[in-house]
Amino acid sequence: MKFKREPTKPIRPLIMCGGSGIRLWPASRSERPRQFPPLFGALSTFQETLRRVAEPGLFGRPVIVTTKDHRFRVADQLEALGIEADVLMEPQTRDSGPAILAGVRHNREAS
């Protein structure tokens, strides 16, 4: 018996990029949280994550959840890699749960 495989939608990655990175201090500070400075080479951990999800056949346009304090860093680092993404801004950091919910709601509305 053969099964017909239905075409699947590409995965839309959700990247949470909000907190201040206090567990990585002193390398990370509130002005420059852990996801933005390069730690293991020329790219930041945020940019490394973006590169991992940039395969168009598998991944769709990423959704980035960040805070208004980090919006310009996010935009600059996206532009440096030539990657387009949907950027959602939380008014303030509220931990992972609300960031995940915001991303899920955005994906549902975009479908």
From TrEMBL:
GO terms under biological process: GDP-mannose biosynthetic process
Alphabetized InterPro entries for the sequence: Mannose-6P_isomerase_type2 (IPR051161), NTP_transferase_dom (IPR005835), Nucleotide-diphossugar_trans (IPR029044)
GO molecular function, one term: mannose-1-phosphate guanylyltransferase (GTP) activity
Residue ranges occupied by any Nucleotidyl transferase domain in the UniProt entry: 13-106
Highest rank taxon of the organism: Bacteria
The protein, known as: Nucleotidyl transferase domain-containing protein
Originating species: Labrys okinawensis
